[in-house]
Amino acid sequence: MFHDATPAGAPLARGSLSPSGRPPLELWGGAECTVNRTREGYRDQSRLTGHHHRPDDLDRLAALGIRALRFPLLWERVAPRDPAERDWRWSDARLGRLRALGVRPIAGLVHHGSGPAYTTLLEDSFAPGLAAHAAAAAQRYPWIEDWTPVNEPLTTARFSALYGHWYPHLRDERACWIALLNQIDAVRLAMAAIRAVNPRARLIQTDDLGRTWATARLAEQAAFDNTRRWLTWDLLCGLVGPDHPLWPRLAVLGLRDRLERIRDQPCPPDVIGVNHYLTSDRFLDHRVRHYPRETVGGNGHDAYADIAAVRVLDPVPDGLAGALREAWARYGRPLAVTEVHNGCTREEQVRWIAQAWDTCRSLRDEGMDLRAMTAWALFGSQGWNTLLTGPGVYEPGAWDARTDPPRITAVGQLLGRLSPEAPAPVLTGSGWWQRPLRLLHAPARHAVAMTGHRAHARPAPGTGPLLILGATGTLGQAFARACALRDLPCRLVGRDQLDLAHPAGIRAALARHQPWGVINAAGWVRVDAAEDQPDHCMAANAAGAIALATACEELGLPSVGFSSDLVFGESGAEWLVESDLPAPLNVYGRSKSAMERGVLALGGRHLVIRTAAFFSPDDRHNFAVHALDRLRRGHPVRAAGCVVSPTYVPDLCHGVLDLLIDGEHGLWHLANGGAVSWAGFAARLADACGLDAGLVEEVSGAELGWAAARPMRCALGSERGAPLPALDHAIARFAQALA
């Protein structure tokens, strides 16, 4: 079972208490130990800086008063070729020396890595594989109590699967989320394996913590970034449930089950490890012409420059102190600064270390449970200026490892003089991040205030999520996917959360979810079955829908309901538009016509969308998918000769969302600008997919066993000027999506 081995307030530091009665602020350390994988192979920082070959490095750092060392027991180094072939010789010797020196190891198992060559961040084998490695490490070193199974899971997922810098070099959002969840599962499984050996084992979970500011146009993107940055700790703390702003975005990508498992079996960190650099805080600016080309990217909707906030914001952001205050307010768990390093000239490195130490002391005086500051990259790093994708340049740390033996720098000398109860030794001058020269671009003095985009994006014109009814239906799920693609927070609910048959429950659900708008994608969809169950169909499609719209009207909320081309009868018209009068031929059509009258009579901001003949690559039960499945097997397709206007569901969703955000209301026809018989539709699908259209046979509705009467021609046109893309274009995209 995954559990929290140590209460949130339990002491972690060893040794005597400070005069204040609290454990003293500890100095921790770490040699840059990343083992990352690129197209050229693995890059091992311990080897590139020479630390791997210098066992006496441990004596050097212990002499500075370092109490704990982030130590690499990395999977890629211990078992690079075969999980059953583990080589502990390097770690045996060094961990033995650390014990003799009285320095606690904080064991790391993966550090910006994707595992050995026999797994990757995207494979199901990653989490159980790391857990097996963790079990072996704990069995070999049962005395180690502090562990970081995966360093910076979110940062690694972004760099590997969203930005393409590291293996597997992808730029795909879903792959990024999978990489993150695999690492979170790896932490959970690894800690369970470790605690089976040592129940006192503690999780010190690290990730980079920066904040994003932006111009007003990009406040939505900044809001997303400022929500995403917490995900490593939110997931481990069991905070990512249906109420989390990012739940809908991940759930519609097929990750709901995994989120639920993590939420139900969390593994809260004993210490939140904050890694923060001078460039961690970012500023997004849509005015791209003001910035170098290499800084410009985008999100698929907006192009923008992504700049270190310290280089452009005036006044300067509050940096490390602000990040720590936010983390303390969010989690109320013990904190540690687990990486402090500045790749700059020596005096600037010293100033940054000193300022970070004094910041930690000040925050402890404010009452924050802040356990330690970690001097990082003690023996330097190689190639971070290329994001570890090439040789790059060497940056010294507390020692300059380009000499033999390594030469202690002013950083190391400062570390040796730090006192838990006294400020850092006085240094002359201020850091570049505090001086005017920090501004490399025209100062942005009018960025949206942090409070304007601290939480996840909220869509105009409201402040809550968009509520979507119909969690199990094709249309409801399609709307949730469209909202995720457009970064519109939404909540997809089923009948167990909002039952249209109970008006009182409708109002309670709306009060509970506080939406800015409601899309009713629920209802009765079985046209022929309605002939035998008219009361049920009318209750779902008319009474329930009207009750929902009425509740929305009382709360001043806009709503969307869906009607059908089957509200029309045998009119003989070539095209039917919004002002044409309904004359339904069947129960289903009458239920939709009744819904239209009831909802439109309310006035207000209610949309009623008439549409027809859905097809979608995400629904295995629609006519188009069924027809193509038969054609691929060489089977004939029997289809009716009545004329309809097929509607591609993704286009429908985007069209409806546009109308809703635009504040439109009333009755609209939305279909893909075409009129074709069901048989003709099947033939055009066959042509688009390279299949034999000759297998399509036109038959009557009676031959197909239809119980409900349909009009022979029911082509939807529009007099309101909101057509969807042409049918042929939609069919081509549908075929491409299936392929």
From TrEMBL:
<comment type="similarity">
    <text>Belongs to the dTDP-4-dehydrorhamnose reductase family.</text>
</comment>
<protein>
    <recommendedName>
        <fullName>dTDP-4-dehydrorhamnose reductase</fullName>
        <ecNumber>1.1.1.133</ecNumber>
    </recommendedName>
</protein>
<dbReference type="GO" id="GO:0019305">
    <property type="term" value="P:dTDP-rhamnose biosynthetic process"/>
</dbReference>
<dbReference type="InterPro" id="IPR029903">
    <property type="entry name" value="RmlD-like-bd"/>
</dbReference>
<dbReference type="InterPro" id="IPR017853">
    <property type="entry name" value="GH"/>
</dbReference>
<keyword id="KW-0521">NADP</keyword>
<keyword id="KW-0560">Oxidoreductase</keyword>
<dbReference type="Pfam" id="PF04321">
    <property type="entry name" value="RmlD_sub_bind"/>
</dbReference>
<comment type="function">
    <text>Catalyzes the reduction of dTDP-6-deoxy-L-lyxo-4-hexulose to yield dTDP-L-rhamnose.</text>
</comment>
<comment type="pathway">
    <text>Carbohydrate biosynthesis; dTDP-L-rhamnose biosynthesis.</text>
</comment>
<feature type="region of interest" description="Disordered">
    <location>
        <begin position="1"/>
        <end position="23"/>
    </location>
</feature>
<dbReference type="InterPro" id="IPR036291">
    <property type="entry name" value="NAD(P)-bd_dom_sf"/>
</dbReference>
<dbReference type="InterPro" id="IPR005913">
    <property type="entry name" value="dTDP_dehydrorham_reduct"/>
</dbReference>
<feature type="domain" description="RmlD-like substrate binding">
    <location>
        <begin position="466"/>
        <end position="719"/>
    </location>
</feature>
<dbReference type="GO" id="GO:0008831">
    <property type="term" value="F:dTDP-4-dehydrorhamnose reductase activity"/>
</dbReference>
